[in-house]
Amino acid sequence: MFTGTYTALVTPFKNGAVDEAAYEHLIKLQIKAGMDGIVPVGTTGESPTVSYDEHVHVIALAVKFAAHRVKVLAGTGSNSTREAIYLTQQAEKCGADGSLLVAPYYNKPSQEGLFQHFREIARKTKLSIVLYSIPGRCGVEIGVETVRRLARECKNIIGIKEAGGSADRVSQLRAALGPRFEIMSGDDSQTLPFMAAGAQGVISVASNVVPHEVARMVRAFDAGKIKEAIRLHQKLYPLFKDLFLESNPVPVKAALAMLELIVEEYRLPLVPMSAKNRETLRATLRVCGVLK
Fold first, then answer.
1. How far apart are the first and last CA of the chain?
2. Residue 64 annotated to the active site
3. Res. 21: pLDDT tops 90
4. CA 3 vs CA 42, 59, 178, 199: distances in Å
5. CATH number for the domain harbouring residue 148
6. Under a CB-based contact definition with an 8 Å cutoff, are residues 29 and 23 in contact?
7. What is the largest CA-CA distance in the chain?
């Protein structure tokens, strides 16, 4: 259901508010590029700094602007189970196709706590759920056995976005969960290694900037055109890395501003890139053929 290439969309701001016109334009570009889906208000969408009302509003905008042309996998995770339930239920009311649920961050629950957290959310929604394991940000990994328990007990938990940096873990997940459970790379630079180990696509940051190319890379690999996929990976690899010169989504928003697609605006504690990193990113965009 959620395989292929999904873009973890930025949330453009203008004068402190969500820039709806820019958001609609970004989504139209994603559709034109052949994306399989979009992910509003995940980490890249600055979910930690939007209010509840804004969070739900951005999901509603994504559903409206997508207009059933691509799937909408709404970011609705939280370190509070009650908050995650609320956001997931609101996403369901908005008409989202599914929910992306990040592991609870900061409070570092046990594996049993993670199991009960996700199970409780799954019981309170009819949406299909994709788990999101990113221990570098959350301080905790969703264990393979925990994922297996959840998939066995909750029929609407159908996949995972894996951002742990290990193809071994993708192999472990595939072995434990079988061929039907969906595994998506959560790291652009690891997409091909993860797909080789059994993942079925990527939830991408880079595709905000180069949607055609990322979609082509994933489809080429999936079609067995390995040399073409590797060629695209090698071409885009400098961009994959430099979009993380500073904390996501600062570099990707800077890149989109360079392309004049959004106003470069963040909410504290995020701040603009340093001058040195900005010039490095600009040079990489030129080398990759994104900027002239």
1. 37
2. no
3. yes
4. 17, 20, 15, 9
5. 3.20.20.70
6. no
7. 52
* Per-residue model confidence as pLDDT tens digits over 209-218: 999 999 999 9
Q: Does residue 51 register a pLDDT over 90?
A: yes
Question: How many domains does the chain fold into?
Answer: 1
Q: Does some domain include residue 45?
A: yes
Residue 190 lies in a domain: yes
Which of 28, 132, 241, 276 is an active site residue?
A: 132
**Could you read off the pLDDT of 246-262 as tens digits, one per residue?**
999 999 999 999 999 99
pLDDT band, residue 165 (cuts 50/70/90): confident
Which residue in the list 161, 225, 241, 276 is annotated as catalytic?
161
Whether the predicted pLDDT of 1 surpasses 90: no
Asked, for residue 277, whether it belongs to a domain, the answer is no
Task: Give the global pTM.
Answer: 0.97
Dihedral in degrees, nearest 10, Cα atoms 255, 279, 17, 91: 40
Q: Is 28 a catalytic residue?
A: no
Q: What does the block give as tokens for 105?
A: 């961050």
